[in-house]
Amino acid sequence: MCCFFCANAQEMRGKIKNHGKSEMDMVLMLFGMDNPISIGTVNKKGEFTANLANLTIDHISEDNRSMSIGPLYFNFYFKCNDSNDFGDDAEKRAARQDYVRLTNKGEWAGTVFLVSDENLIPWLEDGGYNNAVKGSFYEVIYAEEDITVNMTCISSVYAADNEEVPTEYIFDVQLTKGFNWVEYTIEEVYETDPDVRASFPSKVSISNLKDPSKMLWVGIYY
């Protein structure tokens, strides 16, 4: 799959693997299924154009915004133990979108996982039973203002009874007001006893999207 990216326009063009379906809309559902935000379309061959530029949430009610937009520190896939690690930015407002959704005539018809390695998908679906692997996955974060996060925090994950493993999350992210692609790179994986729980990321870098050509857009349909 090829993927092209224009940094200024935040536009990507490529092909969704496993599509072979009808033309569909590509949407974000940060504000619920009743308030989809279109980012592009995919044709019957799986070829798509997706663009985060010039999106607006003006049509989203204040009630829906308040339910979905919350403190920045809570809106990354990986969480620090202490919100104070984010300093003055901790309470700045943001919202996280995990996957790109596909809709057909307004009905949710599929999900697109954005990964550098398809072996990450089982872990993203259920990290308790499926092992993490090294690689990158990608999400979208909406920010109410420009925010720069440049810090490292130490968190922890329970690997077994009475065994708490430290995890390191390295943030170097420049969010602009609006919608942003964010990349999570799993650099190290802690190997666990598989009879207790699956292996999990122990060192992760969080950044802006680095190399769109490494993104695989993998569709799962309903």
Task: Give an account of the 3D structure.
The protein is mainly β and 222 residues long. 6% of the residues lie in helices and 49% in strands. The protein is built from 2 helices and 15 strands. It has helices at 62-68, 120-125, and strands spanning 4-6, 11-15, 24-28, 37-42, 47-51, 70-71, 93-97, 100-104, 107-115, 135-143, 147-160, 163-175, 178-190, 200-208, 216-221. It has an 8-stranded antiparallel beta sheet, with no helix packed on it. A 7-stranded mixed beta sheet has the order 6-7-10-13-14-12-11. The radius of gyration is 18 Å and the shape is globular. 30% of the residues are buried. Residues 4-9 have low confidence and may be disordered.
Write the layout of secondary structure elements.
Layout: E1 4-6, E2 11-15, E3 24-28, E4 37-42, E5 47-51, H1 62-68, E6 70-71, E7 93-97, E8 100-104, E9 107-115, H2 120-125, E10 135-143, E11 147-160, E12 163-175, E13 178-190, E14 200-208, E15 216-221
Parallel strand pairs: 12-14
Antiparallel strand pairs: 1-2, 2-5, 3-4, 3-8, 4-5, 6-7, 7-10, 8-9, 9-15, 10-13, 11-12, 13-14
